Amino acid sequence: MMVHTGEKPYSCSMCGMNFTQKGNLHEHMRAHTGEKPYSCSNCGMNFTRKYSLHKHMRRIHSDEKPYSCSKCVMNFADSSSLLRHSRTHTNEKPHACSVCNKNSRNQII
What is the per-residue pLDDT across 55-71, written as a single tens digit (0 to 9) for each? Predict the structure, then answer.
């Protein structure tokens, strides 16, 4: 129900960010503590989120590429890579440089 009401009763004591679920707050706290409980059995890399470990396993240690481009024959291990690639077909450049205002397909940090 909180999803529909917008209620977020769980608040981070470190930064004030609010969450609808206690588990999401617990996961968020790892950003502050540096805890990385999920470890890759292939390379030993550690992650704060289970999903991040699964994504790493698929991208780095697997040939699985379930995300297919509808415009060409390219396949990708994750949806964000497919999204970046799809911009080559549309010429979409949604990211603007804060210094020169030039637009880019990919966000450069």
Answer: 899 889 999 999 999 99
Cα distance between residue 108 and residue 84, in whole Å = 12
Instruction: Report the alpha-carbon distance of residue 34 to residue 57 in Å, rounded.
Output: 21
* 0.70 surpassed by pTM: no
Secondary structure (H, E, C), the chain: CHHHHCCCCEECCCCCCEECCHHHHHHHHHHHHCCCCEECCCCCCEECCHHHHHHHHHHHCCCCCCEECCCCCCEECCHHHHHHHHHHHHCCCCEECCCCCCEECCCCC
Question: CA–CA distance from 92 to each of 8, 18, 82 (Å)?
Answer: 35, 33, 13
pLDDT at 46 over 90: yes
CB hemisphere CA count around 68 (13 angstroms):
4
Q: What's the pLDDT tens digit per position in 73-87?
A: 999 988 988 988 998
